[in-house]
Amino acid sequence: MSPKINDPEEKPIVKPSDDTVEKSINDPLDVVHYPLWIEFKEKAPGTHKHTQNIINIVDSITSDVPDVNTKALHLATMYHDIGKMWAPYVFTENQSDVNMHDDLSPAISYHLITKHVSDTASILIANEFPIEVINIAIQHHGTTVLRSIYEKCKKDNKKCREEDFRYQTQKPNSLESLILMICDQVEATSKSIYVDQQKDIDPETFVASIFNKLMMDGQFDNVKTELGNLNKIQKALVRDVTGTFGKRVRYEEDDNMEKK
Description:
By secondary structure, the chain is mostly helical. It has helices spanning 18-25, 35-43, 45-62, 70-79, 106-126, 131-138, 147-156, 175-196, 203-216, 227-245, 252-259. The model is unreliable at 1-8 and 10-18 (pLDDT under 50).
């Protein structure tokens, strides 16, 4: 057997020291060692995957928008749904074939689902996250309507009020929290439109419809920023949706979505 010839370019394997691991355990950005992130992945894998998708979208936006506190936004994005791990099967992304809400009243479903925001706040406060990060995380639903449960209520009760199914949280008051809200909506809705319903809608139309819906609903009202930033966010989202789902031909659904 020929003796092994040492490669001068070969780097020695360096194992992390105890100090390095200790620092990682205390660093919420460390996706390998930080206990809260590991627990999140184990208890709510579907939500964890959803979160990873949003992180990618958010990071692609922040590279184009210089006015954003990128670290605070990235950290808030990582943990904005951490409260879901306390009751993971309440949320469809963690369910298999059975949706527990089929057998629940809309009022109970509304309470169970919206509670994840206050649960997120409790977990982040207990883990001593910066208040700026907590504020970004808990504003990502604003006062939007829990649409799926409202629509379910409306089928059985024509007097069902939209206002009774709004999140009772603060509207975004920073560009960071607004970006998280928009990205959350885009990620969740794109799955429904392109994957579940398999509709061919032009990405520009799709993203514009979400922007318009949130803006007309007053979710942008408390954010002060330049219009140029909103334009950059929108373009980055179109680029992301196009890259993920491919460029599509314009169909009648595009016009219908724009009208809505």
